[in-house]
Amino acid sequence: MNGIPTKDLIEDGRFDKPLYLDKRYIILTPEIPVNKSLIKSLIQWEFRETYSEGSQRDPKGVSPESLLGEDLIADAPKQSEQKTEDILISAGQDKDSLRKVTDFYQRFTTFVDQMFTKYVTRNDLNLQEISNRVKELCDFVRDNRRFVLRIQDSGSASRNYLVSHSVKSTILAIVLGSYLKLQPHKLIELGVAALLHEIGMVRLPPQLYMTDKPLSPQEKKNIFSHPVFGYNILREFSFPLSICLASLEHHERNNGQGYPRNLGGDRISPYAKIIAVACSYDAVTSSRPYKEAKDGYSGMLDILKNEGKQYEENVIRALVYSLSIYPIGTYVLLSDGRPGQVVDTNLSDPRFPVVNVLAELRPDGKATFLRTSAAGPMVKRILTKEETHALLGSSGVENAD
Known about the structure:
By secondary structure, this protein is an alpha+beta fold. The longest helix is centred in the first third of the chain and has 29 residues. The chain contains 16 helices and eleven strands. Helix 5 crosses helix 7 and helix 11 packs antiparallel against helix 12. Helices cover about 50% and strands about 10% of the residues. The termini are far apart.
């Protein structure tokens, strides 16, 4: 067991093995970060050294690559060379494809807005109509996956946060379900469940989930009741039990620390486990009155950490391989100094996505698409907001979103 001087403990750092006070008494497990209060107390109690068989990780130095683990890479599906060739051939059609996908996205968002409105004003929730529209969405996502994932983080305006969140969570849930090889009818069920997973929120005052002020204990209790409201609403309209349970359990967590029933592991329904990851990723990458949106890379980092083992590992694997650790749409700097935008994933290794090299055209006038690799060029880092704005405003570079 190694000695770690108290003065070397890093605030918000984590150990990959338990941290001990005196080689017998555990003071931290790997899920819990070091905090300022602990460091202060140890100094105050004159404990000059702590002990662990593991090592400390500086949160500032954490990257998704370091969190992937060999099992994620080893279990990766193999990608054929034809897939990248298809991308290169279709490179010149990107603008038209994005326009088509944006139009579909906006029409679907309007449908979802009207669906919520009809329920609130007429107590109308039509399972057949919703299923038909979700089936259309599943087909559209299958045929336009990389374009859909590029536009869904573009900040598309919605009159209602619940509408925007439901649409984006549903698209991502369908992408994850497709990676997990769900049968077509199950994929549609998953999509319906994701679209309606927050339906219980309509029973609550909007200011509860849109406020930028701390919630009182009673207000938190009210928020925690929305999955139960959602379950009851869907049961009232005779939705399949699998869809009702997904609404009820989408805030349950694998470690049993979720709500409303503190379920864990296999007691949580499969659809709820997928929606939990899709919902959480959208939540961290979306703006709310009380927080700024994180970029897709930082959101992926949050999910990959899987703090407290909240999420199912195979669903996290589906997320990282479907979006890559540099999610589609992310602006990046390549190791050779060229800027680019991630336009597709690499199913063989999520560290090396396909990138559109910006402000650089091929001899035939089409965009330059590059599959990054360990041999290079590879993604060196993501661009900051300021760098991205400067890049998009510079000559010859257009915002693809």
